[in-house]
Amino acid sequence: MLVVKKFGGTSVANKERIYNVARRCIEEYQKGNDVVVVLSAMGKMTDELIELAKSVNPNPSKREMDMLFTTGEQTSVALMAMAMAALGVPAISLNAFQVAMHTTSNYGNARLKRIDTERIRHELESRKIVIVTGFQGINKYDDYTTLGRGGSDTTAVALAAALRADKCEIYTDVDGVYTADPRIVKTAKKLDEITYDEMLDLATLGAGVLHNRSVEMAKKYGVQLVVRSSLTSEEGTVVKEDVKVERMLVSGVAVDKSAERISVVGLADKPGTAFRLFDALAKANINVDMILQSVGRDNSKDITFTVDGNCGEEALKVIEDNKTRLNYQHVEIEKNVCKVSVVGAGMMSNPGVAAKMFECLYNEHINIKMISTSEIRVTVLIDVNEAERAANAIHDIFGLAE
User: Fold this and answer.
1) Is 61 helix (H, G, I), strand (E, B) or coil?
2) CA 49 – CA 52 distance, rounded (Å)
3) Which residues pair with 212 in a beta bridge?
4) For the chain, which has fewer Cβ within 10 Å, the N-terminal or C-terminal residue?
């Protein structure tokens, strides 16, 4: 059996935790299984590297930031190999170049294209535990790239798919996927299993347990995931195509406080206006989420949309740089907003979920700024100061704590 295990930064934050992970991996190895381990950078090292870079250059290039970031994971895998060797088990650390993990050239948010598995298979045949850097790859210029925050999850799933692993386990500082963030909603409970689609929406909408691209890839290649805690032996949450139990109306509530709302006011009300706006943003690699178009006065229209908080100022600059082409009156940005979402496959066969959610927010005197829906989710944009109260009220009204 081949098992891929991914451990996040908190799981390898210090010497004691490194040895804890080493022992857990060795336990799997001693069962006779092949083991591939994917690691993130230790603790808050990535944040520390960002601060260090900004102290040297307030506006570093994305290429150089990727070169710097990759040192974090390389530190983790080297120390882990040393720990396993100290415990008497052969192990080898490999970075993205040594594997090699080929990506696009979009520094800071690259996408995996293919993985060369020969080196890993050779080391596994030598009965070594193979420890691979998460979060990173190499592009066609042999430059290091990174996959975006949370990208180590995607590395693990991609390796599991490429190696046709029997299991892919994602270890983190929580013991599974919960009906809401337990730090926000104290009554949140752990789910035994959840579908890919539900997990993908939760991950995209702010649930930080899994990187959304890792779930997307797991669904595409049929990689069954298990989310578990690295600090306990508790059973985790299985993420897979179908679940055995009858579907709950709502599986979870997600909160995303990183959203920002941008309004482009006074656009021409004619064909091609929306295309020109979103084409400019797409060329700058800015993802847009919720979109609302409304008719303004004097034969004009307004378009409002949300972006990730890390992209708000960049999106604003792109729009302002294209003012002549877009021909709008003015643009506004609102930063103190957040997205609150309910997700559940049970919505498809149960009408009235949105109405129930909106009634709940009305009873809490919380104003809704924007609404977005799909077959299995309803998302609202509200004031960020109302986030926790909204999440708790919605969690309660759908009976998720029962």
Assistant:
1) coil
2) 5
3) none
4) C
Distance from first CA to last CA of the chain, Å, rounded?
38
Partnered with residue 369 across adjacent β-strands are none
Q: Does the N-terminal peptide bond of residue 391 adopt cis geometry, omega within 30 degrees of 0? A: no
Query: What one-character DSSP code corresponds to residue 104?
Result: -
Q: Scanning the structure block, which residue is given the tokens 């390389």?
A: 74
Q: What is the CA radius of gyration of the chain?
A: 23
Give the number of other Cβ atoms within 10 Å of residue 311's Cβ: 19
Cα distances (angstroms) measured from residue 58 to each of 49, 53, 70: 13, 7, 19
Residue with more model confidence, 248 or 85: 85
- From the list 55, 63, 131, 120, the residue with the least C-alpha distance to 92 is 131
Task: Select from 385, 383, 388 the least CA-distant residue to 337.
Answer: 383
* Helix (H/G/I), strand (E/B), else coil: 371: strand
Q: What is d(CA 222, CA 219) in angstroms, rounded to the nearest whole number?
A: 5
Q: Quick one: residue 95, left, alpha or beta (phi over 0 = left, psi -120 to 50 = alpha)?
A: beta
Tens of pLDDT along 265-294?
999 888 999 999 999 999 998 999 999 998
What does the pLDDT look like over 180-212, one tens digit per residue?
988 899 999 998 889 999 999 888 887 778 888
324 is written with which tokens? 């002549």
Q: 337 and 259 in contact (C-beta within 8 Å)?
A: yes
Q: In which order are the strands placed within the sheet that holds 259-268?
A: 288-295, 300-308, 259-268, 330-334
Q: What is the DSSP letter of 77?
A: H
Quote the CA–CA distance of 143 and 56 in Å, as a whole number: 21
Decide if pLDDT at 235 tops 80.
yes
